[in-house]
Amino acid sequence: MVAKNSITCNSYNDIKSSNETKVPSIFGFPPVAVADKKSSVFASDFAIPIIDFACVLQDAVSRESVVEKIKDAAENWGFFQVINHGVPLSVLEEIKNGVVRFHDEDPEVKKSYHSRDFAKTFIYHNNFELYSSSAGDWRDSFACYMAPDLPNPEELPLACRDAMIGYSKHVMNLGDLLFELLSEALGLSSETLKRMDCLKGLLMLCHYYPPCPQPDLTLGTSRHSDNTFITILLQDNIGGLQVLHQDCWVDVSPLAGALVINIGDFLQLITNDKFKSVEHRVLANKAGPRISVASFFSSSMKPNSTVYGPIKELLSEENPPKYRDFTIPEYTKGYIEKGLDGTSHLSNFKI
């Protein structure tokens, strides 16, 4: 059995790509986490909001309708799916294929990108929280900063280079629109969140979840909220993503061509709890591999001196600030050190 502190890139992948019939102990979650997983109520009468962006740019009435739906979803769910969002289906398929191509590479090729230095442009890792959490999640990932500056193409693996660059350009365009609509949903000028540099950084995190021999004993991704302003997620048709809503784990059912949008911790903080960053997780499963691509609007660990706090226009005597000011690198450092332990890092910034 492999000890957590001796895990290497190769040994970790060997465990998950072998013909193991049991989940090694390093990936086995404590009884409390397993019990939570088994006893959860899966609400069949709940469904993540689906918002159609087809006419959002065509007329004011359609835009107002979309803004109202986004406001309701951001306040009550923290999650919604968008359709007719403008990203071509061919681009969505190509980035998923690019993730598969990279993970099908020779182990020595992948090993050359393996790192836990989150300041690097492109890194391949197993779990960023592997050494801070009680168990490893059943997934492999690679991450790359795609904004504010596109990386030098030579820094990206050939297997996914063009797919990442092409997809990120569409994601930035969609993010621009989303921040306008979210600003309007707050009753503010459409440029408010963009002026606050919420669109400044983009970290693309691509996940590969291998088939799991005992999915009831582990998780693909532990329960957590995102340290982002918003996250745009592309998922394949395997399923497994769940959102905690009214104490129920609700499936985010795959919808062909859709993108999942969720509110991150930073947006909850600067909106003074008006918009909600909610916990979510990914179940392990025997099907697969499962592919997802999360695009985080955050500068993460990159240098960023911008100080954020609750937006002053949203505050009043009846709604005083609930959080202290922070910088994104400060928040992210604590978030990574804490790991995905099922608790919100937001609580550490409350006044």
Describe the structure.
The strands form 3 sheets. The chain has an 8-stranded mixed β-sheet. Strands 6-11-8-9 form a 4-stranded antiparallel β-sheet, with no helix packed on it. 29% of the residues lie in helices and 20% in strands. It has one domain: Jelly Rolls. Mean pLDDT is 87; it is low at 1-8. Strand 8 (241-245) and strand 9 (248-251) form a beta hairpin. The chain is an alpha+beta fold. GO terms for molecular function: dioxygenase activity; metal ion binding. It comes from Cardamine amara subsp. amara. This is 1-aminocyclopropane-1-carboxylate oxidase-like protein 7. Belongs to the iron/ascorbate-dependent oxidoreductase family.
Give descriptors for this structure.
alpha+beta; 29% helix; 14 strands; four-stranded antiparallel β-sheet; 351 residues; eight-stranded mixed β-sheet; 9 helices; Jelly Rolls
Class by SSE composition: alpha+beta
CATH topology: Jelly Rolls
Biggest beta sheet summary = 8 strands, mixed
- Measured as a percent range, the helix fraction is 25-40%
Record the strand order, biggest sheet: 1-2-10-7-12-5-4-3
List the helices and strands and how they pair.
Layout (H helix, E strand, L loop, with lengths): L8 H9 L13 H9 L10 E3 L7 H17 L2 E5 L5 H15 L3 H5 L10 E4 L14 E8 L13 H25 L6 H4 L6 E8 L9 E6 L5 E6 L5 E5 L2 E4 L7 E5 L1 H6 L9 E4 L6 E7 L10 E2 L17 E2 H11 L13
Parallel strand pairs: 1-2
Antiparallel strand pairs: 2-10, 3-4, 4-5, 5-12, 6-11, 7-10, 7-12, 8-9, 8-11, 13-14
Helix pairs in contact: 3-6, 4-6
